[in-house]
Amino acid sequence: ILFQSRERIYVYDPKNESLTFISPDSQFNFLYNIGHDIYVQDGSELQNYNGKGFNSIASVSGRIVNLISSDNTLVAAVENSGLIRIAPGGQLQPLDNNANTILKNSRITCFRKYNDDFFMVGTSRKGLYITDKNGHIQDYFRIGHALDHATILCSATDMSGNIWIGMDSGAAMVDNSSDDYYFWDDRKSNS
What we know:
This protein is 4% helix and 54% strand. The protein contains one helix and 20 strands. The strands form five sheets. Strands 12-13-14-15-16 form a five-stranded mixed β-sheet, covered by helices on one side. The protein has a four-stranded antiparallel β-sheet with strand order 4-5-6-7, with no helix packed on it. A four-stranded antiparallel β-sheet has the order 8-9-10-11. Strand 8 and strand 9 form a beta hairpin.
């Protein structure tokens, strides 16, 4: 069991009831659990947990917002750089350049799979983008089009494929079975 802070990763072994820790070379950003693999960003180094410590697999300039698996490779959303594929051997391959230009100027805040073929990319300035797994923008939800606020804090899908979007001002739901959009704002009185 691993617990992460910026200064340490604590490793608890329930069999031995022991607690050890790993210190970063710089500082730990986020811990990512993908299948049975654990990754962490230490400064600019993306590292993989080997059971005793971390092995560097790629150098990534910028803060990785999230890391997901797609077609047996890793895809990282880098806050001010866009989407990159991390090939075996640590080679970085930026996804669609046109989309990355837009995402660089939008500041990525969240990133996750919509399904096996599409990603959801939330931003702090421009709303939510839906891209294919090559990074090409397929859809875009912004202020005045399903959203009343541009800052996307999180996104998720339900079993029907509807998109749920968490924002500073409330939550929105995009109903994919129709052209309807719903918005809830807890700040407004229901009376």
